[in-house]
């Protein structure tokens, strides 16, 4: 058994961590509390604050690094203050300040770590850099009580199928080009639909009205996926649809016209079927019957439904969280950072440089030994 | 390497602790193009409340970009100090 309390401050029986997340267009600040001892269903982490502000761009536009960084700079101190207000804690109570060290967009990451470094020095609280993906995985496990699941991590910047083995979260399969959320977001841009609350959510709502399936390329390559070709293909279909160009793919066998809702529906069905396929294969590889879905696309109810059908066939169980924990947030960074802190890790100031590329399997998972 | 252009910024803080913290927050990030520009942070030898930033680069453009970036970061640092310096033992309440 791992001892998580070797570094507990004398006279205390709990820990508090502040988590700062800003690797993409969401800025999140969270405060979490752990009681001493192993985390179990009877000894759960407590969320004291989980505040988020999302940089939302106009329809048809994505978020650019520079503008996103400006948004984060503008809000980060106010969000930290609001999190402290909500939690009713003092700086004195905090054991550690956790920040996202990567992967993500360089400028937004950097704009947040500046605040983390300054607060850490002002209040003399150690820092810890957290891998964003590990944040998602650990928070998902904590919220759902899943012990050793196959993890499907699907978001705007990442698509990975992950399983734990010997103190690493190992990547079994991943996208070879763009992430699934990026594919959905960019199609939303093609359709010029709203980015509020998120482009993926609006595609999901439109897809509910779709009923005709348009066949799209299906590009599973071993345990990996490729999605850029699918995007190109469906973008061309949408272009023909908007410009009333003749395209026999845009009429069903019964003569019905394909709508944008049908395209959203088809895109989701195709992409999610690919995800379900590699997830099922990963489950067979590692002999697991639990699936945990994390990341922003994990909120999608159709994805959860499709995955549930597959998992049911294998007599397994599916674990997913809601938007508070699926979509990027500060609390998951606080949680994963606190786990590392409890194992004695801290990040010295000169090693707090953020990195755009930071693979999930680079992190030694000291807090697990199963 | 010697560069053609240079710019020196002097940023006064309330005390030497703050100027040192600002240096600590800015200094870890590496310069993206070290063959085009260098940025050196130091504390003023006469007045320790002053943080000095020395830019030297091979064009005025790279200096402008780097200086802008440093100033943007300084805004976050100063806002952080305004809100939190000396308030470690305070419970914040909604204003």
From TrEMBL, chain A:
Main location as per UniProt: cytoplasm
Record keywords, A-Z: Acyltransferase, Cytoplasm, Metal-binding, Nucleus, Transferase, tRNA processing
Xref: SUPFAM superfamilies: Actin-like ATPase domain (SSF53067)
Gene3D superfamilies: 3.30.420.40
Cellular component aspect of the GO annotation: chromatin; cytoplasm; EKC/KEOPS complex; nucleus
EC number(s) from the headed UniProt entry: 2.3.1.234
Residues that coordinate or bind a divalent metal cation: 132, 136, 153, 328
A family per Pfam: TsaD
Reaction it catalyzes: L-threonylcarbamoyladenylate + adenosine(37) in tRNA = N(6)-L-threonylcarbamoyladenosine(37) in tRNA + AMP + H(+)
UniProt-listed GO biological process terms: positive regulation of transcription by RNA polymerase II; telomere maintenance via recombination; tRNA threonylcarbamoyladenosine modification
Cofactors required: a divalent metal cation
Binding site for substrate: 153-157, 185, 200, 204, 300
Family designation: Belongs to the KAE1 / TsaD family.
Protein name: N(6)-L-threonylcarbamoyladenine synthase
Source organism of this protein record: Pachysolen tannophilus NRRL Y-2460
UniProtKB/TrEMBL annotation, chain B:
Coiled coil: none
GO molecular-function terms, A-Z: chromatin DNA binding
GO biological process: one example: positive regulation of transcription by RNA polymerase II
Signal sequence bounds: none
Domain of life per record: Eukaryota
Pfam family, one: Pcc1
InterPro entries per the UniProt record, alphabetical: CTAG/Pcc1
Family of this protein: Belongs to the CTAG/PCC1 family.
Protein name listed in UniProt: EKC/KEOPS complex subunit PCC1
């Amino acid at each position: 058994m791992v001892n998580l309390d070797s570094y507990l401050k004398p006279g205390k029986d709990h820990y508090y961590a502040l988590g700062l997340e800003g690797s993409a267009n969401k800025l999140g600040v969270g405060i979490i509390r752990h009681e001493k001892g192993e985390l179990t269903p009877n000894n759960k982490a407590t969320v004291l604050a989980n505040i988020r502000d999302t940089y939302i761009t106009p329809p048809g536009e994505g978020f650019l690094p520079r503008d996103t960084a400006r948004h984060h700079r503008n809000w980060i101190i106010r969000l930290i203050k609001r999190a402290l207000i909500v939690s009713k804690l003092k700086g004195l109570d905090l054991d550690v300040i956790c920040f996202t060290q990567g992967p993500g967009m360089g400028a937004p990451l950097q704009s947040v770590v500046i605040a983390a470094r300054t607060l850490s020095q002002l209040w003399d609280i150690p820092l810890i850099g957290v891998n964003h993906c590990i944040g998602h995985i650990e928070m998902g496990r904590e919220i759902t009580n899943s012990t050793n699941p196959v993890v499907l991590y699907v978001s705007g910047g990442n698509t990975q199928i992950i399983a734990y083995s010997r103190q690493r979260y190992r990547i079994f399969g991943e996208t070879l080009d763009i992430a699934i959320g990026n594919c959905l977001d960019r199609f939303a841009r093609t359709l010029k639909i709203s980015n509020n609350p998120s482009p993926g959510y609006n595609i999901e709502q439109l897809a509910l009205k779709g009923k005709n399936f348009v066949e799209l390329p299906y590009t599973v390559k071993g345990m990996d996926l490729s999605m850029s070709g699918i995007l190109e293909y469906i973008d061309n279909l949408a272009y023909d649809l908007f410009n009333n160009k003749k395209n026999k793919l845009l009429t069903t066998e019964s003569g019905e016209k394909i709508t944008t809702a049908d395209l959203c529906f088809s895109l989701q069905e195709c992409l999610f079927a690919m995800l379900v396929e590699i997830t099922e294969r990963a489950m067979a590889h590692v002999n697991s019957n639990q699936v945990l879905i994390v990341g922003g696309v994990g909120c999608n109810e159709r994805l959860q439904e499709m995955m549930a059908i597959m998992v049911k066939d294998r007599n397994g169980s599916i674990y997913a969280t809601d938007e508070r924990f699926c979509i990027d947030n500060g609390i998951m960074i606080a949680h994963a950072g606190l786990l590392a802190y409890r194992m004695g890790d801290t990040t010295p100031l000169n090693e707090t440089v953020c990195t755009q590329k930071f693979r999930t399997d680079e992190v030694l998972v000291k807090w697990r030994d199963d | 390497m010697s560069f053609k252009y240079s710019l020196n910024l002097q940023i006064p803080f309330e005390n030497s602790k703050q100027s040192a913290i600002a240096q600590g927050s800015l200094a870890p990030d590496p310069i993206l193009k070290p063959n085009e520009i260098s940025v050196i942070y130091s504390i003023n030898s006469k007045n320790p409340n002053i943080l000095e930033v020395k830019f030297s680069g091979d064009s005025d453009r790279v200096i402008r970009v780097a200086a802008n970036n440093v100033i943007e970061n300084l805004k976050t640092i100063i806002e952080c100090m305004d809100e939190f310096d000396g308030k470690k033992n305070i419970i914040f309440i909604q204003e």
